[in-house]
Amino acid sequence: MEIFDLFANLDVNGALLLLVIIVLALGFDYINGFHDAANSIATIVTTRVLTPFQAVLWAAAFNFAAYFISLYIIGEFKIGNTIAKSVNEQFITLEVIFAGLIAAILWNLATWKLGIPSSSSHTLIGGFIGAAIAHAGGFNINGEDVIVYAKVLPIIAFIFLAPLLGMVLAYFITVFIMWVCRNTLPHKAEKWFKKLQLVSSALFSLGHGGNDAQKVMGIIGAAVISFHMGLPEGFDNPYESIENAGRFSYFVSHWGWVPLASFFFIALGTMSGGWKIVKTMGSKITKVTPLEGVAAETAGAVALYVTEHMGIPVSTTHTITGSIIGVGVTKRISAVRWGVTISLLWAWILTIPVSALMAIGVYHLIHLFI
Prior knowledge:
Layout: H1 6-9, H2 12-46, H3 52-74, H4 78-84, H5 94-114, H6 120-136, E1 140-141, E2 144-145, H7 149-180, H8 186-229, H9 244-254, H10 257-272, H11 275-284, H12 290-310, H13 316-331, H14 338-366
Antiparallel strand pairs: 1-2
Helix pairs in contact: 2-3, 2-5, 2-8, 2-10, 2-11, 2-13, 3-8, 3-10, 4-8, 5-6, 5-14, 6-14, 7-12, 7-13, 8-9, 8-10, 8-12, 12-13
């Protein structure tokens, strides 16, 4: 059943709220795109391989191309499924999802304004969890956990593991490249690596699109399923006869425009750029050469593909930041501006709890009106 069919025979207020949530989710997807544009283009812009305008077009094209890879090559949307099931379905309502989205959008806009490359992924998860806790009135109600820890704990662990994985991969890729090119003239090598940066940036943009667009799919899927599960008796509810494990797959198969829209809006957001964060990522952490740009983007792409295969939503921001640190360390430890890095680490650690607290406040506020 598509969204506009809901108005014909269901509660109009509920259908309207669901429609608002879908619009907000796609709006968050757009913000995610320009907030995280720096992840894909920071190194390729600072090394002057492409102009900023060319770079965002390049990244956006591959963000959207990730849709076809996820659909036709991978064949499923594991990360979207993880997001949809990060909260016990008993405590998911449209008001919970609405509050979580509002909190996530506010935090994303605040960090973008400050030029802080925080995680849009963790912002969304924190908002979703916080609003659910506010709705339930605690972490455990009548023996039922509000948070599905089997889904959420790996996400929290990868706040630290994703940048570490990116850093280690980037370090060894850089060392390997330098060994292979040890007898190559520097001018010739730089010329080749500027061309290779187009490839590595495209690979990372594919990973960014495949990873981040699915998170919005998960939120919309949770909203659609929650809406149908809350219908009174007598209404057609196609999800009621389907086991919880298969509901997200059913949603994707019957709401096929949602994945397409999710990938489109994140690509559209990427085209809008995020120049403050580009400056932080491209020059404030460490100075990046074309060779190091190739190593960092390749390492980040590999990390994203691995975690996507595992169905773990990770931060593309954390991953590429760790990769940039990894290439900096190959020169010398002092080549990395650790003061900036530590500030970023604090922002990453605080993102989920701050977003959760904001969502709790937003939930109680909107509950006065809805």
